[in-house]
Amino acid sequence: MGRPRAFDEDQAVRAAVELFGGRAYDGVSVDDLVSHLGVHRNSLYKTFGSKRGLYLIALCRHLADDVRPLLDALADASDAEAALRLVTSADLGLLLLAAVERAPVDAEVASEVTAALAAVDQAIADALGVPADLAAALTAAALGILLRGNPENAATALTQRLGPLT
After folding, report:
1. Residues 116, 60: Cα–Cα separation, whole Å
2. Contact, 143 vs 85, CB < 8 A?
3. What is the pLDDT of residue 1?
4. Distance between CA 43 and CA 25 in Å, rounded?
5. Contact present, 90 and 81 (Cβ < 8 Å)
6. Of 42, 79, 133, 149, which is most buried by a Cβ count within 10 Å?
7. What's this model's pTM, rounded to 2 decimal places?
8. Are the beta carbons of 112 and 98 closer than 8 angstroms?
9. Rounded to an integer, what distance in angstroms lies between the CA atom of residue 57 and that of residue 45?
10. Is the dihedral of CA 3, 8, 9, 12 positive or negative?
């Protein structure tokens, strides 16, 4: 009989979300995971199978813990500015890194990212009563603002220009 697990799997996954969300998949080594998660290498492999296995679990956790609440909040967005502010204030680091780093080379990651972004688009379309293509453009603008460091008043300036459209 093997030894009982000496770490909390939930805490390890949360720590992996933070690590991958800050440094991306390729920026995190197995040694980084072992030291940051406080998990022995053998336990990491036994529990998660591989670095990629842990990454997929962490990505799904990020989508559940960070993106799902955003979708719920977007349902109450009264206008485009409110929607943009919600998206640009959300913790979407791992989603954005997954979209640019892993989705192009990993079909499973691409599927998760595509579904999450489509859900954000749909939440914006539903909340604002706008066509899907305009909602997708608003999502893209919000993510661009987020990638550029969420400059002060960017959401307000953008929605002033988009006023007639929304």
Report:
1. 10
2. no
3. 47
4. 20
5. no
6. 79
7. 0.88
8. yes
9. 13
10. negative
